[in-house]
Amino acid sequence: MGICRETLRYNFQFVILTLAVRIWIPSERRRIIDALGLKPGDRVLDHCSGLGGNLRPICDAVSPGGHVTAMDLSPEMVRAATRLVRRRRLPVTVEQGDALQLPYPDASFDAVVHTGAINQFGDRRQQAMDEILRVTRDNGVIAIMDESMAPERVETRFGKFLIKQNPMFLDPIPTELVPPGVEAKVERVMAGLFFNIVFRRPARTA
Ligand SMILES: C[S@@+](CC[C@H](N)C(=O)[O-])C[C@H]1O[C@@H](n2cnc3c(N)ncnc32)[C@H](O)[C@@H]1O
């Protein structure tokens, strides 16, 4: 009987996880990316692109005529994203690059989308943000999303479980990365587990 209950619980957790990964997370990503105001023809950098989960919704937003660059440090991630792009025939260039020293000229992109790595950069977060600001054109869109759990979630069973797996869920929202005087939309997304900061790059001074 004990084994049976364990098996049921395991199966239930597996189903929930599968639904989250296959349906909920992609639909949340799309909702968040759709709200960025990207336009057909835009050049967008998917910064630290990983497996490429953002690529389909970004491509949909900038088509026709847009172009997406996916950049990641890890050769394995670059290979995985390249496979995805080929399979789905997406207008994406996948490249290896370091977020702390981006291999692009100034003002190369109309928008930079970052999900999921800024917390890992620790005391090099500002360096990563300075590089994002450098490659974004004046008035271009910058969107940064990563873990930061809403206070009311922290003490829940689910919250404690996630924090045990990844203590960065306790990181505060890094609003200090927004340039001084710039108005940013700051919100918690994905059921209050992540932050999302969106702002427009201020114009360069001569
Ligand atoms: C948690 S994954 C997020 C991937 C993807 N953006 C997503 O939302 O699914 C973090 C990614 O950041 C990449 N990464 C970490 N440090 C990096 C760096 N210095 N430059 C570029 N990519 C980096 C990792 O290789 C990994 O693919």
Strand order of the largest sheet: 3-2-1-4-5-7-6
Ligands, ions, cofactors: S-adenosylmethionine
Per DSSP E runs of 2 or more residues, the count of β-strands stands at 7
Fraction of residues in H or I helices? 25-40%
Most strands sheet: 7 strands, mixed
Tally of individual helices: 6
Which H/E pattern describes the elements? Answer: HEHEHEEHEHHEE
Number of domain units = 1
Q: How far do the termini sit from each other?
A: 74 Å
- What's the alpha carbon Rg, rounded to whole Å? 18 Å
CATH topology annotation: Rossmann fold
Unreliable spans are none
The best one-word shape is globular
Architecture overview:
The protein is α/β, with parallel strands linked by helices and 206 residues long. The protein has a single domain, classed as 3-Layer(aba) Sandwich (Rossmann fold), CATH 3.40.50.150. It is built from six helices and seven strands; from the N terminus they run αβαβαββαβααββ. The chain has helices at 2-34, 55-62, 75-88, 125-135, 151-154, 157-165; strands at 43-47, 67-72, 92-96, 109-115, 136-147, 184-189, 194-200. Helix 1 packs parallel to helix 2 (55-62). The longest helix has 33 residues, at 2-34. The radius of gyration is 18 Å and the shape is globular. The structure holds S-adenosylmethionine. S-adenosylmethionine binds next to loops. Residues 48-51, 53-54, 72-74, 77, 98-100, 115-117, 120 line the site of S-adenosylmethionine.
